[in-house]
Design a protein that fits this description.
- The radius of gyration is 18 Å and the shape is globular.
- A hairpin with a 2-residue loop joins β12 (about 290) and β13.
- It is about 35% helix and about 25% strand.
- The protein folds into 2 domains: about 5-140 and about 185-285, PPM-type phosphatase domain (Phosphatase 2c, domain 1, 4-Layer Sandwich), CATH 3.60.40; about 140-185, no CATH class.
- It has a 5-stranded antiparallel β-sheet.
- It has helices spanning about 45-60, 65-90, 145, 150-165, 175-180, 215, 220-230, 235-250, and strands at about 5-10, 20-25, 30-35, 100-105, 115-120, 125-130, 135, 185, 195-205, 210, 260-270, 290, 295.
Length: about 300
């Protein structure tokens, strides 16, 4: 199964520190995005610490991983990263923290590909299959998990509804509140204790895996992202269009508009593309604040 990959990172406004960063290690099969909490001290440093910690772990991965081993490795990566960020925060007397979404790819003995997905916070991983169906693999560590009192399938249904909302009138009063509070995090890297959410996928021919920070998925609906990805088979072009469309939306005054760092990784498999490995990286910025038990990432 052939693999092509693109990374794009954009930021706004100019002249500020970027608090997004990404990790792209195709030789190890490890990809990740991080969004440091702005408005707290050292948010950008937290993202870089987490990235470097996971990169160090990735360098020791075996060539072939089983699903159980992969789950354990991803859990260890995220636990070690939160310890490192927490240690920095304690040493410097601040509240440094970051989100993280990690994708680890491994070949199977039969020549297929499995993907392990781990996340803490509200950075996301999506898949889009050969039929063009976009699915959010991760589920945000936010108000839906904390307050909604729903089962996992119900939470995912509600998450999808918020993801595609284009105006407040389409949502109930509670849904409007959860949408407004969607940047409030119940856990982030930098907390003393975390419970990473880990999923295992058997990658199918024609799939695409997409990792995003909230500058992308806040501004674009799932439907809009799916349309872009379906219409653009080259991962590098798809990543650039996602960035461009999200940036355009962020400059509007609409319901979803949100000026922020924007980071996306697009990984295409099999017949979706046979392009060469390509990277596109620009620089970026974010702003956010801490708000009680739930931490806000904007």
């Amino acid at each position: 199964m052939s693999i092509a990959m693109a990374v794009a990172l954009e930021s706004t406004p100019r002249g500020m520190h970027s608090e997004d960063c990404s990790l792209v290690l195709p030789e190890c099969g490890v990809f990740a995005v991080f969004d440091g909490l702005g408005g707290v001290t050292d948010g950008h440093i937290a993202a870089e610490i987490a990235r470097d910690c996971i990169a160090a772990s990735a360098s020791h991965l075996p060539a072939v991983l089983g699903q159980e081993t992969m789950c354990e490795i991803i859990s260890t990566m995220l636990h070690e990263a939160t310890k490192a960020v927490y240690a920095h925060a304690v040493e410097h007397g601040n509240d440094a923290a970051t989100t993280a979404s990690v994708c680890v790819l491994s070949q199977t003995a039969e020549g297929g590909v499995i993907a392990g997905i781990g996340n803490v916070g509200d950075s996301r991983v999506y898949t889009i299959d050969s039929r063009g169906v976009l699915e959010q693999v991760t589920l945000d560590d936010g108000p839906i998990r904390c307050y909604a009192g729903l089962s996992e399938p119900e939470m995912r249904k509600l998450q999808k509804r918020l993801n595609n909302a284009v105006n407040a009138e389409a949502l109930t009063r509670n849904e409007q509140r959860w949408f407004a509070e969607r940047h409030m995090m119940s856990q982030v890297l930098g907390d003393k204790e975390i419970t990473p959410r880990i999923s295992m996928l058997t990658v199918q021919d024609g799939w695409t895996i997409i990792l995003t920070t909230d500058g992308i998925h806040d501004n674009l609906t799932d439907d809009e992202m799916g349309e872009i990805l379906c219409g653009t088979p080259h991962p590098n072009v798809a990543a650039r269009i996602l960035i461009t469309r999200a940036e355009e939306r962020s400059r509007e005054f609409g319901f979803r508009a949100h000026r922020d760092d924007m980071t996306v990784i697009v990984i295409g498999f099999g017949n979706r593309t046979n392009a060469e490995l390509t990277s596109v990286i620009s620089e970026g910025v974010s702003a956010s604040r801490d708000s009680g038990r739930l931490k806000k990432v904007e």
